[in-house]
Amino acid sequence: MVELSGVGDRCVSLLPAEALREWQAQADSTLEVCGLDLSQADLSGADLAMGLLVQTVLRGARLVGVDLYRARLDDAVLDLADLTGAEAVKAVLDGASLRGANLNGADLGSAELAGVDARSAWLRAARLDGAFLLDVDLRGADLFGASVRETSFRTELDDETCVRGLTGSLFGPAHVHEAGTRRELAGSELEAWLNSRGAAIEVLEPRGKSVSHCAKVSDSPPRRV
Predict the structure, then answer these.
(1) CA dist., res. 51 & res. 147, Å (int)
(2) Residue 50, class by beta-carbon neighbours within 10 Å (0-12 exposed, 13-18 middle, 19+ buried)?
(3) Pairing of strands 147-158, 174-178
(4) Does the structure show a pLDDT above 50 at 60?
(5) Under 8 Å between Cβ of 174 and 156
(6) Which has the higher per-residue pLDDT, 118 or 10?
């Protein structure tokens, strides 16, 4: 079942397909579909700002150009989803799976990605400025032309990770997988590894203290009217 919270004392519970049509017809409503399987759904261009999609399965979904500002996608499954041009500023994707997902041109500024599996994901020209990538698996991912600015970049990388054209500044360390080994690179070593592969990156000194802006969903439940 899907629960949709809208305006005018309206709250409906419908089957997924019916609920999505109902929600799309409403104005100024917030999508709340935690834990549902919406694989292959087409929500391209939708306003999902502040939406609750915790543990939602969106495998292979079309989410082109969606607005995910401050949306909660903790533990969501977005494998092979198309998020081209998505606006996901300050979105929370902790624990999400983005394997093979297309985030080309997406804006993930100040987004929170902790424990994310983004192997073979497409992040071409994506904006990751100020984002928190903590324990993110980027092996085989394509970051061609992506930008970072004071971005926390504690990631897993390998020879298949494309960093050509990656520009800006980031905080390490990162782990590099090469020839069956895994080694940690930080500071000038990480900078040299990235830039030798076509990036133009400055690796900054570690932050004085790791800061997490993640909040539990239960800490700020949605207001239902």
Answers:
(1) 26
(2) middle
(3) parallel
(4) yes
(5) yes
(6) 118
